[in-house]
Specification:
Its main location: membrane. It catalyses: ATP + protein L-histidine = ADP + protein N-phospho-L-histidine. The protein is of the alpha+beta class. The protein has a five-stranded antiparallel beta sheet with strand order 2-1-5-4-3, sandwiched between helices. The protein is rod-shaped, with a radius of gyration of 50 Å. The C terminus is likely disordered.
Length: 559
């Protein structure tokens, strides 16, 4: 039961958040209900007050007249024990009640003598026990010489009825007696109930009409907005020929016309940019291909000169070595440009197969061992003792690792570079940790940009092209994986490559932490919650804050 109520509440909340029409109609109904309800209450209360005041005025006149008549009738008697006094009181009560002791109008007249309860008996017309309806407070007020009233509910001649009870003192030669009128308020209650029902019914009808009017007006406004939203979604999906229908000349028609004009301008601009991008990609590809032929010729000549450099003067021999090195870099740059053009054109293909990543890491380390030894950067490995199998493209993974390790060696500052390999049920991860100068805050947004360098004045040790990390990021995306960076000034940097263990799976977590365990906050070391993490899953900062122990991906990446 609670689950059903929770789901219903969730659907209602979702509808409330998503539907402007529902919110407007609901607010209109609530506001109009409060206003109409308050107005109905005031009207009904006013009608009841008027009816009661009229009844009080009428009964007050009857009481005053009855008290004068009763005073004249008993003025002849000087003592309460006179024999004819009780008979006179009986006749007076009957007369004031209308002359018929059995009258059925509902009005009850009573004469009592609080000062002479044993000598003068209480008389009523028609006969009824009125004592329960005459309260002690009313009796004391009348006995003190005041005309007083109250409203009481009781049973006299039938069903329980609400009575307006009026009491008045009647002066005599021997003292005072009391005259009471008990007038039923049945007619006033019925009239007030009818008035309340009429006001409530009118109010409900008014609220319903206001709700319908709000729904109609909101629909007239919301429908074009919904059409605009759907059209915008189609435009964002690439259907650039979608337009809104323009009806009339009002503000909504102006909105539709303006939206269509905006869509036309966007379509024209997007097509122009696509054409420019296509021409740029084609230019890059064509230039890269065209440079292959002269590069091959220059390479053959440079190889010949390089092979004979020992017979040249030292200056010429050194020039031959520089020429050979720059040709190697130039050839690598052309290869990277061709690869980037394939990514940009969407022609890059993944050739995934079950691969043991441990030998891949060893091949990368062996290839870069000479460079690491030359710059004095030791490479340390933290690899599992068993094979780490994943469905990946080994050529692309090896290229990513070669770029990451080469970048770490270049910025290692003669300190060790640690390569760690981890695996869990759904993913494999490789981290490359260096202890160099690190990355400044904000540079994580730029590290995967093409041709970006943290220090432009710094000479490259590896002869890189500036495209390595950009290509590595595209290779990771092609696998459906993540390539992330962390860095802090003076603490080095760490890159983490996370790939799904099975091709096509969706990643949710990584087996390895992005922030190394030895990293410290810039305000005095580690704190509760772990070190500061600055993650760049797609070339930008994703989150800044303490890293949880499980190092799960942020919500932005999971979505």
């Amino acid at each position: 039961m609670s689950g059903r109520i929770g789901r219903l509440a969730g659907r209602v909340h979702q509808t409330w958040r998503r539907s402007l029409q529902v919110r407007v109609v609901t607010i209109t109904l609530v506001a109009s209900s409060l206003l109409v309800g308050g107005f109905a209450y005031l009207i009904a209360d006013k009608i009841t007050t008027i009816l009661l005041d009229n009844a009080r005025t009428d009964v007050r006149q009857r009481v005053n007249s009855g008290a004068s008549y009763a005073a004249r009738q008993v003025s002849l008697y000087g003592q309460p024990q006179e024999a004819q006094l009780q008979e006179t009181i009986d006749n007076t009560v009957n007369y004031l009640a209308g002359g018929d002791p059995q009258q059925t109008s509902g009005v009850v007249v009573a004469i009592t003598a609080a000062d002479y309860p044993t000598m003068i008996q209480t008389r009523t017309a028609p006969a009824a026990n009125v004592q329960p309806l005459i309260s002690k407070e009313l009796r004391e007020a009348v006995a003190s010489g005041q005309v007083a009233s109250q409203i009481r509910t009781g049973r006299l001649t039938g069903e329980p009825t609400k009575y307006l009870v009026y009491g008045s003192p009647v002066p005599t030669r021997f003292g005072q007696i009391e005259l009471y009128y008990l007038v039923p308020l049945t007619r006033q209650d019925t009239t007030a109930a009818d008035a309340r029902a009429t006001v409530v019914g009118t109010g409900i009808a008014l609220v319903v009409l206001l709700g319908l009017l709000a729904a109609l007006v909101t629909r007239l406004v919301v429908n074009p907005v919904r059409v605009a939203a759907r059209t915008a979604q189609r435009l964002s999906a690439g259907l650039l020929d979608q337009r809104m229908v323009v009806n009339g000349e009002d503000d909504l028609a102006l909105l539709a016309a303006s939206f269509n004009q905006m869509a036309t301008n966007l379509q024209r601009q997007i097509l122009r940019l696509e054409e420019m991008s296509r021409l740029q990609r084609r230019f890059t590809s064509d230039v890269s291909h065209e440079l292959r032929t002269p590069l091959t010729t220059v390479r053959m000549a440079a190889d010949l000169i390089f092979a004979e450099r020992d017979e040249f003067d030292p200056a010429v021999a050194r020039s031959a070595e520089l020429l050979q090195a720059e040709l190697d870099r130039f050839e690598e740059l052309l290869t990277d440009l061709l690869e980037i053009s394939r990514f940009d054109a969407g022609f890059a293909m993944l050739d995934a197969e079950p691969t043991d990543l441990v030998p891949v890491v060893h091949r990368v380390v062996d290839r870069l061992a000479g460079l690491a030894e030359r710059v004095g950067v030791p490479i340390e490995l933290d690899l599992p003792g068993t094979p780490v199998i994943a469905e990946v493209d080994p050529r692309r993974v090896e290229r990513v690792l070669r770029n990451l390790v080469g970048n770490a060696v270049e910025h290692g500052e003669a300190r060790p570079v640690l390569i760690t390999l981890g695996i869990d049920d759904t993913a494999v991860a490789i981290t490359v940790r260096d202890h160099g100068v690190g990355l400044k805050l904000g540079e994580e947004k730029l590290v995967f940009n093409r041709f970006w360098r943290a220090d432009p004045s710094r000479a490259r040790q590896t002869g890189g092209t500036g495209l390595g990390l950009s290509i590595s990021l595209e290779d990771a995306r092609l696998h459906g994986g993540w390539l992330e960076a962390w860095g802090a000034p003076g603490q080095g940097a760490q890159f983490r490559l996370t790939l799904p263990a099975r091709a096509g799976d969706r990643l949710t977590t990584s087996p390895l932490r992005l922030v190394p365990a030895d990293a410290a906050l810039p305000f005095g070391g580690p704190r509760d919650g772990g070190p500061l993490a600055i993650e760049a899953g797609t070339g930008g900062v994703l989150t800044v804050g303490p890293v949880p122990a499980g190092d799960e991906r942020p919500a932005e990446v999971r979505s």
